[in-house]
Predict the structure.
Amino acid sequence: METLGLAIDTTFDDTSVALLRGTRQVLSNKTLSQYKDHEAFGGVIPERASRRHLEVIHPLIQDALKEGGAAFDQLDWIAVSHKPGLLGSILVGLTVAKSLAFLLNRPLIGINHIEAHPYANFLGNSPLAQALANGQNPFPLLHLVAAGGHTLLIYQRDHFQWEIVGRSLDDAAGECVDKAAKMFGHPMPGGPVVDRLAMAHPPGDVAFPRPLLNDPGLDFSFSGLKTALRYHLEAHPQAPEGPTLAAYFQAVCDVLTAKTLRAARRLKVERITLSGGLCASQKLREEFRRAADQEGLELFVPPPALCTDNAAMVACLGAFRHQAGRHDSLALDGESNLLG
Amino acid sequence: MTHALALDTSSDDLTLALMKDGQVAASLQQPMGRQINARILDEIHRLLTQEGLTPRQLDLIGVSVGPGSFTGTRVGMALALTFGQVLNKPVIGIDTLRVMAAQTTPRAEPFLCVLHCSRDEVFMARYQWGPTGYPQRLDDISMALLEEFPGRAQSLPLVWRSLTPRWGEDVPPQLAGLERLPLTHPRGPRLLALALEDRQNTPGPFPPPVPLYIKSEAFRQWKP
């Protein structure tokens, strides 16, 4: 009988609980977004996020168990993201997970949220999940994790063996897209709005910069692009929203695809995956499909709902960690930094 | 006979108390700061094992709901609520100032409980020992600036403690003239006693505890 695991993620502003059978069968994946709670502030207020996590986590666990048709006593292991993110938020999910592991006398598995993001590609009947189930070795993989808090290129040799080969030196790509939407008066999250406009409009003729594109390294920079949009809007207050944001997002897509492909060539990797909230973008997916085809690379993209923060990806990595006997003690603490 | 666990993580101290067969069997009050997150479950496990109890034998969980460190309060409440959910047992929330009040020796007159919560701010509320043998709060908990405090204190006797040992347990010089009531009982066992008292006085299901995030806005409306 395959194991049953419960995973919790409260690293940022979403509270999420998932139940996983084996390493890939998602029995439930419940996420409560806090966007409405933070809308008026134009960004996530850490204290407010932590309060919401505490208010909703226990009912959410109840929902996840009910939907998955499971009871506490049937769980084989508990996984939880304990880094990186907002420490106050992490501590809510982590304390709940540790208490569950203690009370049920089951192993605790502390997960790096960033390492978990690409595992959205290993769930259900996805090609990578099937490859693993058939005993094939899909590694090495190059992962682009693009979200509101991180833009990272991760080279993965095998489970638990990975390194960051490129990262944003300033703002994350998702942040840069959210703030662009905000400049046009859209509430959080701005990503879906920008994506819709980018799909509907050909990119206007505004020449937005492609930061660090000509730099030979694999790092990103997006804050200058944000500033370029601000200056453009100051100079052209009547700039049409659709074409302007389409041109802006094209610049983001160009940099992300070019750098990812460069990394793949340099590291001699034939398979790349996308994950993170920004990768829910239809436009970005299309750009990557085209670029990967041209380059002869295999591209793996999870369903949009598994791109944004969710506990199913945490559960997936947790299941592999459980298989490998990589458990943590109840002294596990939270860490806000990625490399802490 | 009742088995119960009480915990308070709203300050730099980890405070625990365990009741076995209706008697306080073990307790702990230790300054740990950020170490609380890493050590709390090991300490709870140690107390339970020492008394030959398992978590499933607990009938009730008492937890401090603040005011205090917001993050610290959430850690304790997240733990207590998970115990309540898994064990299907009531979780009773008790405010930190009421625990301080219950740590004093009973007296007839009202007194002020004050928790030094930042360099220049305090949480405060008035309490009075009731006929039940437990102190009751007389007004809403508020947050006050230390410099405004003497005017608010109304010369009431004072129970004072600090959220962190870094600030010491001495009252600031401007309050030195007020009568200070000593904390004559340990914190954990009093928290446990209050939780049991509230449970017994509340028929039917006990409402889930709500964290107290007291801000200075409340202070402006505070009318003693």
